[in-house]
Design brief:
The chain contains four helices and five strands; from the N terminus they run βαβαβαββα. The protein has a single domain, classed as Glutaredoxin, CATH 3.40.30.10. The protein has a five-stranded mixed beta sheet. It has 103 residues and is α/β, with parallel strands linked by helices. The longest helix is centred in the middle third of the chain and has 16 residues. The chain is globular, with a radius of gyration of 12 Å.
Length: 103
C-alpha cells in the first residue's frame, strides 16, 4: 500500500495499473470505519491494482487537486486520470467491483 505525499503523487499516478486513492484523516470516524476494508481490498487485489492512502491533513494540495470535499472519498484512476469516485463508507464488494471494471 502506498502512502501518498506531495512528493510521490506523480509516481503513483504514473502506475500502469488502475489506482485507487483513499482520502482520509485521523480525526474522521467514518474514515476509521472504512480503513480496514481498504486494507483488505489492497491485499486481495495486490498485483492487479495500486491502492494508496492520502491523509488530507498532510497533503492538502493533493486533496484540493482532486476536489475532495468530504472524507472518506475513494478516487479510482486509470491512465493517471480519475474515472470514478465513491464518497462515505462503502462496501468491500462495491470497491472490488469498481476496480475490476477498470482492469
Amino acid at each position: 500500500m502506498e502512502i501518498i505525499t506531495n512528493t510521490n503523487i506523480y509516481d503513483v499516478l504514473a502506475s500502469e495499473k488502475p489506482v485507487m486513492i483513499d482520502f482520509w484523516a485521523t480525526w474522521c470516524g467514518p474514515c476509521r470505519v472504512l480503513s480496514p476494508t481498504v486494507d483488505e481490498v489492497a491485499k486481495e487485489m495486490e498485483g492487479k491494482v495500486t491502492v494508496a492512502k492520502c491523509n488530507v491533513d498532510d497533503a492538502d494540495e493533493i486533496a484540493s487537486q482532486f476536489g475532495i470535499r468530504n472524507i472518506p472519498t475513494l478516487i479510482f484512476l486509470k491512465g493517471g486520470q480519475p474515472v470514478a469516485r465513491m464518497v462515505g463508507v462503502v462496501s468491500k464488494e462495491d470497491i472490488i467491483a469498481q476496480l475490476e471494471a477498470l482492469l
